[in-house]
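Review this today:
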Amino acid sequence: QSVLQGIILLPLRAICITFILLLAWLVASIATFCQPGRGFLPLEGWRRRMIQTTLSGLTRTAYFVMGFQVKVKGKVASLLEAPIFVAAPHSSFFDAIICALTGMPSIVSRAENLSTPVFGTILSSLQPVAVSRQDPDSRKNTVAEITRRALSRGQWPQVI
């Protein structure tokens, strides 16, 4: 009986997750379409709300479809209380759960990830701090950018 469930559930889950991923790509594309100051200015208004609510909801739904039910205990610190949110160790796809639960903050990511099809568009919508491993000044530039965003008094989303 469980083998039969697996034969039915696996393709069904894969189809649902693919649909959610493409929907997330569409939402990210709409939110960043003709974005003023692309990457240098924070998303504002409907664009920011669209990313925070819709993308967060889609990410939570995808994890639910995969069989994960996450329960939050306590209260997530607000942007003004904690402009930088630290999550560690960040070495798996579970990091996206933290992003969804905290309102889709900006992240620190390899610059190469931004050119990945579908995922790159979604990642770009989070306005990441891009780290280039080829640039010798990248570490210093990353720290400066995180500091600039943290001191923006709520203009930029939290940085994780």
